[in-house]
Design goal:
4 helices, alpha+beta, 19 strands, Beta-galactosidase, Chain A, domain 5
């Protein structure tokens, strides 16, 4: 009898200590409407990467005066919007001021466009319409269908690496745009300098230096594609380059391995089959390009997107299980979403 009681007691203790599935109560979309200033994208607890959609490119000032609309975009995303300009890797959540929005990526098909266009005329640029009916936001995972080109965008993250997965239609004109100009609370002189080096047909490195809320802030990156690039190029949107130096004698707009400037957008071209997935690992470092590459190779040494998603959600579940409450389902959603945002 004593043996039976001991077994029952141990089993009860193990059951009490077993983690509950609390991730299901987290709704990252909560707080993205009006002035909530939260973002719905993928991140892990205390992560350096917040990979999330940005729904417009609102400048900090217009004609030299503060633009009040920029305050609505502290987190880059507004639930009221109907277009997505791309997915950037750094975001604040719940703040009354903002910055970041580094390294925006956007998949497109068809005619290449290197301007984001406007919300009133989305077809004039690379942005895409989307519907909340085709959008999923979970702790550590985000998914949305980009309606204009019928591309499924998915993303997850580790501490220092954003992991993208884009499902394309069949085309010989599939593109990945890397916008080094885009940012949150952007203004003309915010970007001090950007640099991109195409190491080989699957690896890109570089950095972006900005002067915003955080002064003289430099973020280094390493970007890896799951498929070799067919062609690549760039466009520099600086109004006037006074001195172009030795590099000025070369055509830097197409397949040139080193690009630098203040207002650069890169593009990478691919041929894709129906339903083909192109994956991107995008690592950040405050130290160097080499450290960004080391972060990538250490944290995601493979191309298994689902594995990284599961690891991200397991990390959130571990944190959420530090507090257990006995409450109705709606109250659990409010509580654990607030805990997630904290």
């Amino acid at each position: 009898m004593k043996y039976i009681l001991t077994v029952v007691t141990v089993f009860a203790l193990l059951s009490a200590n077993a983690q509950q599935n609390l991730v299901k109560y987290v709704k990252p979309i909560i707080g993205t409407e009006k002035m909530g200033h939260t973002f719905p994208g993928a991140t892990v607890p205390f992560g350096a990467v917040q990979l999330s959609p940005d729904t417009d490119t609102i400048p900090y000032e217009v004609n030299g005066k503060y633009n009040g609309d920029v305050y609505k975009y502290c987190a880059g995303y507004r639930y009221e919007d109907r277009t997505i300009t791309g997915f950037s890797h750094t975001h604040f959540s719940g703040t009354g001021h903002s910055d970041l929005g580094d390294f925006l990526i956007m998949p497109t098909q068809g005619k290449l466009q290197l301007n984001p266009g406007t919300a009133s005329n989305p077809l004039s640029g690379y942005r895409s319409a989307f519907s909340h009916a085709n959008e999923t936001a979970e702790a550590g995972y985000y998914k949305v269908k980009l309606d204009d080109d019928n591309i499924l965008a998915e993303m997850t993250a580790t501490t220092r690496v954003g992991f993208h997965q884009y499902t394309f239609k069949k085309s010989d004109q599939s593109h990945i745009i890397l916008d080094l100009m885009s940012g949150i609370y952007n203004y003309d002189d915010k970007t001090v300098w950007t640099y991109v080096r195409v190491v080989n047909d699957t690896l890109i490195t570089g950095y972006r230096q900005t002067n915003g809320w955080a002064r003289t802030r430099t973020v280094f990156f390493a970007m890896s594609f799951s498929k070799p690039i067919k062609n690549y190029g760039q466009k520099n949107f600086e109004a006037r380059q006074v001195y172009r130096g030795f590099w000025g004698k070369f055509n830097q707009n197409s397949n040139f391995p080193e690009i630098a400037g203040k207002k650069i957008r890169m593009f990478f071209d691919f041929n894709t089959e129906e339903g083909e997935k192109i994956k991107i690992k995008f690592a950040l470092s405050p130290v160097s390009q080499e450290n960004a590459l080391l972060n990538m190779r250490t944290e995601i040494p493979h191309w298994n997107f689902e594995k990284v998603k599961q690891q991200a959600q397991a990390a959130w579940n571990k944190e959420l299980n530090k507090i257990n409450i006995d409450a109705a389902e709606p109250d659990k959603t409010n509580f654990y979403t607030a805990m997630y945002h904290a």
